Amino acid sequence: MSNLESYPPVFRQKNNDQTQMVDPNGSSVKDFQKYYSDPVPLIDLQRMNLEKFGEACKDWGLFRLVNHGIPVTLMSQLQGQAKKLFSLSFESKQRVFTSPVSYFWGTPALTPSGAALAPQNINWVEGFNVPLSQLSQFQAHADPMLDSFRVLLEEYGKHMGRIARSLFEAMVKNLNLDAEQSESNLSESTGFLRVYRYPKLSEANEAAAFGMEVHTDSSVLSILNQDQVSGLELFKQNEWFQVKPIPGSLIVNLGDMMQAISNEEYMSVKHRVKVNKNEERFSICYFVFPGEGSVIRSSKYKPFTYSDFRAQVQQDIKTVGFKVGLERFKISADHEQAS
Ligand SMILES: O=C(O)CCC(=O)C(=O)O
Ligand SMILES: [Fe+2]
Fold first, then answer.
1. Which ligand 1 atom is the nearest neighbour of the CA of 217?
2. Would you say the CB of residue 108 lies under 6 angstroms from ligand 1?
3. How far is the CA of 211 from the centre of ligand 1 (A)?
4. Residues 195 and 156: beta-carbon distance below 8 Å
5. 283 touches ligand 1 (CB under 6 Å)
């Protein structure tokens, strides 16, 4: 089967008209790595330097994680299996990925699947959505390829939960938060994985094409395992930086919930994914959230749960067309609305 048949039809046209996909921030990427060594802070999970860790959370909202304890073989087997599954035909992917796992394309998040969207409005990405706590219900037993994918995802998911918990505990300690009260602000049972393939976009204007548009994650934190094809960029001090792929390391970024939990000591970092002209890009991203009903309390935001936040985001996407995010829960924003 040709690679083209594995793509959703909307990604198959040869002359992709990307003229309307403009860079919303209008700035060019400074290829930092060309001039300096990798500027992204490096955190060693097994020998954590709390001070350096705190600075990375404050100044960057993103860091590279090494010594994370995930076997190299697990990481490469998972990437390999994901690549194989993406190369199945579009129709097979729609058929075999059934609840609780789902297959999507064109849009990563809360908006409907890209099938109905015009090509210039879609994100150049397809993916599998994997809610980890329901993975045992995924009917994969009849197909050895799917079943081995399920086993790898389960194993990988356990590592993600372990890493997220230990990073969260270190943040709670650094922020001097009450450990008992904050405990439920992160719940491993909410964790899910998104496995992505970003098709290459050979004949388009690469500089203006997005695998994923600028956004912040809604999570407490997100842990990204990217392959060796670059594409991820983060926005810091009015500039876009490439987050270089370095084998064996993970990228952790803080999400909106952590910004609120930390009372804005830490920031939810803006990032985006560019598509590549010559190569497809694969990545596996883990997202984790506060527990069901767990209230986030801080002085800058009114108390809210993640369900409140998600409902607001979904409503905003329907009514204003994009995620407004934390602004909706800010105490100062409330006062302004009232006056
Ligand atoms: O694939 C990536 O590198 C990042 C994905 C991402 O930002 C997301 O899923 O929120
Ligand atoms: Fe993201």
1. 10
2. yes
3. 9
4. no
5. yes
Tens-digit pLDDT profile for residues 115-143: 445 555 678 899 999 999 999 999 887 89
Q: Are 141 and 147 in contact (CB under 8 A)?
A: yes
Confidence (pTM): 0.89
Nearest-CA residue for ligand 1 atom 10 is 217
What is the spatial distance between Cα 211 and Cα 192, in angstroms, rounded to a whole number? Answer: 20
Could you read off the pLDDT of 265-277 as tens digits, one per residue? 999 999 999 988 8
Q: Residues for the chain: how many in total?
A: 339
Backbone angles phi, psi at 323, to 5 degrees: -80, 120
Say if residues 269 and 235 touch (Cβ distance below 8 Å).
yes
Protein residues near ligand 2, an ion, with CB under 5 A:
217
Q: How many CA atoms lie within 13 A of 232 on its CB side?
A: 30
> 């709390």: which residue's tokens?
50
